[in-house]
């Protein structure tokens, strides 16, 4: 099947065209035919498109809304420029959408029909910044490719619906859960499912045998305790703000700080929430950047104290979560690093693991340094009691595979 994967934001759209089916998935031989990003939708949009040859085609186009963008992408995909080997839009067999929030309704990926659309709409309250745009993408794709092409929603929260009540509830008066569904939902579920599945393929484990702590460390960052192949806890909560120190998000803090800062600085609560989301984390501590690569360079080259501090705080928080999940799940057999930082920042991985020597974690320094830039593999030494792996994530590929499985009526929880 040729699956168009769409990840739609307020003014951006990312896409990938993937050829996959059950056989290719088992052999890990799915084919990526094209991908691209369109930014600043609504006016003079800026596009970067990569066909099969992988060379970027950049430019601008007047694209006034999401429908215009999907139409633009579909036309390009069947053009000679893309080199996908597909020359009719009708050869796109399915569309997979990344949907941020599935609330408690969606425990797995779903074939989009009117009831699913209603379900996503009902969840808008929980993800007002994301779900409306995801919906816009669904309507745009339906209008451009026609109602006959199956569309599948893959939810970032779905994987975490197995988290038990004791871990997903906040210790607030229970009625706020009952009335408003205030609870931990967790995010990055698509990434965790991909990473856990890939780890199983690499190690020959079954789903039930998979007991790991997975770390998705990108601009947004989170940790996930996976026991018996399912999520039993995760660090992001009601929103993606909770948990680890991130590029611009604070992660965990005492909620009383919000009101205190608001009154001291004359800010509203939404202002302070904005500050916690956009001006905190690595950026807030370093005062320099939210970008780990730049921060590492700054720390090394200029010995900048606050750059070091931000990196240390980031690693310390990750380590604390690993410790707490090990206690929560009665031990794990491996720690998996993924995301831009997890896949590339060898110094971050070694600092996180240096604090885990009590546990018998021993990195192989050479393997740690070498496993970067998309490489995958074990980076712990032979005598490490808990293994450490780098498993590059691929959320788009998981969405494409799910789309095939849902369309073919197979269980998407593999
Ligand atoms: P997003 O959450 O936006 O998808 P990514 O997973 O792409 O983010 O991760 C972005 C982060 O990964 C940035 O902080 C970036 O600096 C970091 N990163 C990417 N490459 C490297 C590298 N070679 N060394 C250190 N950090 C890196």
Which strand order does the major sheet show? 5-4-3-2-1-6-8-7
* Largest β sheet strand count, sense and barrel closure: 8 strands, mixed
Low-pLDDT stretches: none
What small ligands are held by the chains? adenosine-5'-diphosphate
- Give the N-terminus to C-terminus distance in angstroms: 18 Å
Count, helices: 16
Assembly state: single chain
State which percent range the strand residues make up. Answer: 15-25%
DSSP helix fraction: 25-40%
> Can you give the mean pLDDT?
96
| CATH class label of the largest domain | Alpha Beta
Give a concise summary.
The protein is α/β, with parallel strands linked by helices. It is 39% helix and 19% strand.
Write the layout of secondary structure elements.
Elements: E1 2-8, E2 13-19, H1 22-27, E3 31-39, E4 44-50, E5 56-62, H2 66-77, E6 94-99, E7 110-111, H3 114-122, H4 131-145, E8 151-155, H5 165-168, H6 174-180, H7 189-203, E9 212-217, E10 221-227, E11 230-234, H8 256-265, H9 269-278, H10 281-286, H11 292-302, H12 305-328, E12 334-338, H13 339-344, H14 346-354, H15 365-370, E13 377-378, E14 387-390, H16 395-407
Helix pairs in contact: 2-4, 7-16, 8-9, 11-12, 12-14
Adenosine-5'-diphosphate binds next to helix 11 and helix 13.
